[in-house]
Amino acid sequence: MNTPRDPEGRLRELAPQVLGVVVRRYGNFADAEDAVQEALIAAASWPVDGEPDNPLGWLVRVASRRLSDQHRSESARRRREDLAASWSVTPAESPTGQDDSLILMFMCCHPSLTPATAIPLTLRAVGGLTTREIAAAFLVPEATMAQRISRAKASLKANLEASGELFALPSADERAERLRSVLHVLYLLFNEGYASSRGPELARTDLSGEAIRLTRGVHAALPDDPEVAGLLALMLLTDARRPARTRADGELVPLAEQDRSRWDRALIAEGVALITDALRRGQVGEYQLQAAVAAVHDQAPRYADTGWPEIVALYSRLERMTGNPMVTLNRAVAAAMADEPAAGLALLHGLDARLGDHHRLHSVRAHLLELDGDTATAIVEYRAAAARTDNAREQHYLTKQAARLAIGSAPEGWRPPD
Hints:
- This protein is mostly helical.
- 68% of the residues lie in helices and 1% in strands.
- It has helices at 7-26, 29-42, 46-49, 55-73, 77-85, 100-108, 115-125, 131-138, 142-163, 172-194, 205-221, 226-239, 265-279, 286-299, 308-322, 325-338, 341-347, 351-355, 359-371, 375-388, 392-409; strands at residues 198-199, 390-391.
- A two-stranded parallel sheet has the order 1-2.
- The relative contact order is 0.06.
């Protein structure tokens, strides 16, 4: 037995491999996914009992037993015997160089599913995100997302059984058909890793790192697709800033205050080269536009040198292309910096109906109100933002901003209560 240094990250890394082995062996995605989730829950004892010498084999055996128990209750004797005979893992079941995570992504993004169901299912099966995290990414209630994932699993199971589709990467034509959903999965997976929606830390590098690894794999398979290159560029250009995003104690550092000498110049150079080549192809998509925004930020020597008018233009084009309210939110910040805070605040009108009570809307409004001199309302908005985020680092940062403004605007000698 070994003691894993990062049990959660280790299980996240193993989950797609285990699911790949179980699906390849038994051919029932929905049942296999449920069994693997139960095996991962059982592995919660590893930090106490130690990691098994063969963790992959341990998880596959537990998942196989769950499947065997299920089929026993259904009186499927022949199926039981087949399962019991194949509990051990052999190297032949996981061919060298085969990436089960990529196969699972393309399988979950099956054309029989709509993107609204395929993407959450893939985030659950491949990314290991919880239903709550996925619901937050889609701005829907957790119960709604749970039903959506359940329906997707049932539909995928029926279609795979009807078609007899093998557990393997689909053909080039089929990959192209499913690519948009796959890229959206990778984008959301990276976002959750780079700025976690909940938990004690600002980021989850296991998720963002896995998203980059998988996107590199898709780019290797489809090197001429400009949107794949654009997404990879976006991830690299964004991740390049990660070393400067937090202080030694984990506190969030806003972009304007980051030490740019700590940015990863190798990632920036790779990302700029990727997006430059992609844009030259003349087939501009949403990930390329976002990567172009990231490149403008990364290539500015100082925050004061940022090309805000160029960023406004890029966000305007992206907004027309996607209609995404989060893009409007980002454009508001850029407009405030390029022109004046009032220009950004004007763009926020109507977003409440589209974004609901999202903490990012409150935090952006607070920032722009502060720049515009409306300290009292900015304090209210900072507090509202802090109350609505489940990420402890973001919450602490936003609370500090509200306290800073409250002290600055208070009568002389006033101090916040203990």
